[in-house]
Design goal:
The protein is of the alpha/beta class. It has a domain at about 80-325: Aspartate Aminotransferase, domain 2, CATH 3.40.640. It is built from 13 helices and 15 strands. It has helices at about 5-20, 65-75, 85-95, 110-125, 145-150, 185-200, 230-240, 260-265, 290-300, 310-325, 330-345, 380-390, 415-435, and strands at about 30-35, 40, 45-50, 105-110, 130-135, 165-170, 210, 240-245, 270-275, 285-290, 355-360, 365-370, 395, 395-400, 405-410. Strands 4-10-9-8-7-5-6 form a seven-stranded mixed sheet, sandwiched between helices. The protein has a four-stranded mixed sheet with strand order 1-2-3-13. It has a four-stranded antiparallel sheet with strand order 11-12-15-14, covered by helices on one side. The longest helix has 19 residues, at about 330-345. The relative contact order is 0.15. The chain binds 4'-deoxy-4'-aminopyridoxal-5'-phosphate (PMP). 4'-deoxy-4'-aminopyridoxal-5'-phosphate binds near residues 112, 113, 140, 213 and 275.
């Protein structure tokens, strides 16, 4: 069979099967057949370095991961109505990695959207309050409740006008291009949350929760300014609300210096949502919280998710935590991510298009601007850079509300050699674009 024709055919079949609303990232997406580490290999034998896959944290086709799941599938996989060692082991392993000893209870689900949805339910039943404060430019999932707190206008152009009345928005704490910049930005953004929390309380509808990504993944890997999250947590808790840290994208060792975005910033959340890396593309997410918060749910009824925490997904979850620890992947994220950030910053004098390098570890956002004063987003240039990088064998995608931030969030096994090759390719592509 002709692989080029086969790829064209696969593209047509995909479009016919899933319709136009499914997100598409390339005009001519490659047809990927296999993976290895941070590499993806297409049907024509071409290898790409995958710099966007924050789901497959331990890398593609990890043999230990595949073997452990396969062994469990040969034994048993069914819904979670019974007692399984695998379930007990995974929840205990995740509690052992929990951001804080107070967060001692885990409920497995199937995805990030479900984890966020359950986190919102838990906050509501534990506080008896419906109102939630969410951050602009965020994405938290597609289920009704997760969608209600997803505020990114890029993902949903009607996000602002279709919001239910229990969701209240605050600005994204972006000290690079937001309303507040400079050393006092953290306090200024936190004041906005404190003012809102107070006025909601004055209206007799105090917030039950504040939800935020501890590093603003959807906004392009922007780290909130120092002191923001802890000040916000104090303000929300002063009125009896809980803090939900959505660690679906940025948690699980990706940030390098810390396993969790919240602890990196000195925040102990009340509820944490995880997914993506938690299952390495096997459908697994979880909520980590305090026992008393889950007990509040038990008073309302029971919680059941047919495939949440099945033996196979629990084995997958434990295997991932074992591999992250055994292979030192958090440390690799710190080291290799540090090299990329440093080397890309070193390109800045030569390439005025690079406005900033956000993030840390292997969650980086290279923000492209047409002018470093006005910060005019270089959206078309970002798309072009991604297309050209594909030609060099690097898969990178533009993100954020303005689609001008190149996100670097590869499998945590990315090697230093591939990292340096990526920076060299970016240098070449930016040079070609300029000339
Ligand atoms: N929260 C965050 C921060 C996310 O990035 C995502 C997915 N992009 C979700 C939740 C939803 O996760 P899922 O796609 O697994 O439902």
């Amino acid at each position: 069979a002709d692989p080029v024709r086969a790829t064209r055919h696969a593209r047509r079949v995909r479009e016919e099967a899933i319709g136009a609303a499914a997100e598409r990232f390339y005009a001519e997406p490659p047809q990927i057949e296999r993976g290895w580490g941070a590499l993806l290999i297409d049907t024509q034998g071409r290898a790409y370095v995958d710099l966007v896959n924050n789901v497959t944290a331990i890398g593609h086709a990890h043999p230990v991961f595949a073997d452990r799941i396969a062994r469990q599938l040969h034994l048993l996989n069914t819904n979670s109505r019974f007692l399984y060692d695998a379930f007990a082991e995974f929840t205990a392993r995740l509690v052992a990695h929990s951001p804080d000893p107070s967060l001692d209870t885990v409920i497995p689900v199937n995805s990030g959207s479900e984890a966020v949805d359950l986190a919102l339910t838990l906050a509501r039943v534990a506080t008896g309050r419906r109102d939630v404060i969410a951050v602009r430019e965020s994405y938290h999932g597609w289920t009704s409740a997760a969608d209600a707190v997803s505020t990114s206008a890029f993902d949903n152009p009607h996000a602002a006008d279709s919001r239910p009345d229990w969701v209240h928005l605050v600005d994204a704490p972006n000290a690079y291009r937001g309303r507040h910049r400079g050393p006092d930005a953290g306090a200024a953004y936190a004041r906005e949350v404190a003012d809102l929390a107070r006025s909601l309380a004055d209206e007799g509808r105090p917030a039950g929760a504040f939800i935020c990504e501890p590093v603003l993944g959807n906004a392009g890997g922007v780290i909130p300014p120092a002191g923001y999250l802890t000040a916000v947590a104090d303000a929300v808790r002063a009125h009896g609300g809980l803090v939900i840290a959505d660690e679906v994208q940025v948690g699980y060792g990706r940030l390098g210096s810390s396993f969790w975005g919240s602890t990196m910033q000195g925040l102990v959340p009340d509820i944490v949502s995880v997914a993506k890396a938690a299952g390495n593309a096997y459908p697994l997410g979880a909520v980590i919280t305090r026992r008393e918060i889950v007990d509040a749910l038990a008073r309302e009824g029971t919680f059941f998710s047919s495939a949440g925490g099945t033996p196979a997904s629990a084995v997958a979850g434990s295997a991932i935590l074992d591999i992250i620890d055994a292979e030192g992947l958090q440390q690799n994220a710190a080291r290799v991510g540090g090299i990329i950030a440093e080397e890309v910053r070193a390109l800045m004098p030569r390439h005025p298009l690079i406005g900033a390098v956000h993030g840390t570890g292997l969650y980086l956002g290279i923000e492209l601007v047409r002018d470093r004063e006005t910060l005019e987003p270089a959206r078309e240039e970002a798309t072009r850079v991604c297309d050209l990088l594909l030609g060099h064998g690097f898969i990178v995608q533009a993100a954020s509300e303005r689609q001008n931030v190149l996100k670097v969030k590869p499998p945590l096994v990315l090697t230093e050699v591939d990292a340096r090759r990526f920076v060299a390719a970016l240098d070449a592509v930016l040079g070609a674009l300029r000339d």
